[in-house]
Amino acid sequence: MPKIPSLAIAEKILRGIVTQGIPDTSLTAVRVGDNPASISFLRQKKQAAEKIGIRYEERVLSESATEIEVASLLASLAKDPKVGGIILQLPLPSQLNQKQLLQLIPSSKDVDVLSGESKQKNYVPAPPLGVVNAILEAEKISLTDKKVALIGWGELIGHPIATYLAGQNIVHRIFRRSDHSLQEELNLFDVVISGTGVGSLFGPEHLKPGALVVDFGWQKDESTGKISGDYNSKNNEEEERKGIRATTTPGGTGPILVAKILENFSILADKTAPIDKSNSAML
User: Alpha-carbon distance 221 to 45, whole Å?
Assistant: First the structure.
């Protein structure tokens, strides 16, 4: 079975943003320190933003930055009318209180939907949830009659998706990555969504025929530089035999996630700033 066409899904989202018009404000990212993964993720966001004409800016603070310094920068961006969206790139250095700092991003500019206010107001969906829905739409799958396994209960991936599944009364089960029954019981589920960052946590041999896998996991082998996901897709023969559809790692959920962040920026900025259709780049 061919893999889920993640790049095509992402391109469709980006074209939709262009069609609606590019806001005449900036998407500003704040990075603290020089975490290689953070630098890589922000580079992807910058490239996608500039591709469609979104003005992208990045503010970098040192690894030793104090909470007051980070808070001051976030407060300044929150008040700046030229800034339409704010990204506080995670993870943060250990001396910083991540939860408190995220609360300083107003919901009207919180493209990642990570502050408590943003989650309550629900102006836009959390990007990982947007990714799942975009894939389901592309695959023409409804969850109303499906059983969903969600692996991982993290704040970024698992929590917003679990909240949505519960709110929609969708049959689901949450697994911890350390659950001993994980591999034995995954074959009971039609859709598997995973975001633990544990390489090759499960494979097609653990899944039921026709299963759909949405893999947010990301792990880099420092010795080889190879990137892998939670789902081990090396057993292509078993995957083909069972008709399993899965995202790849890298290049799977990542491009769609970036596109959804930009879509959130476009929606939020549209509430407070004029839209410039003349400068929109074409895909």
Answer: 23
> Given this model, what pLDDT does residue 225 score?
82
Q: Tokens 């890298």 correspond to what residue?
A: 250
| The CA-based dihedral angle spanning residues 16, 2, 242, 170, taken in that order and rounded to the nearest 10 degrees | -10
* 50 CB neighbour count, 10 Å cutoff: 12
Q: How many CB atoms lie within 10 A of CB 136?
A: 16
The total of structural domains in the chain comes to 2
Maximum CA extent, the chain: 56
Name residue 194's beta-bridge partners: 151, 215
Whole-Å CA distances, 4 to 44, 134, 140, 214? 20, 11, 12, 9
Is 226 within 8 Å of 199 (Cβ atoms)?
A: no
Q: Which whole-number Å values give the CA distances from 42 to 28, 59, 198, 235, 254, in the listed order?
A: 10, 11, 22, 32, 11
**69 and 164 housed in the same domain:** no
SS3 126: coil
Domain that includes residue 76, residue range: 20-109
Joined together, the tokens standing for residue 99 give: 């939860």
166 within some domain: yes
Cβ atoms within 10 Å of 219's Cβ, excluding its own:
16
Query: What is the rounded average pLDDT for all residues in the chain?
Result: 93
Residue whose tokens read 């939020």: 268
What is the tens place of the pLDDT at every residue in 188-216? 999 999 999 999 999 999 999 999 999 99
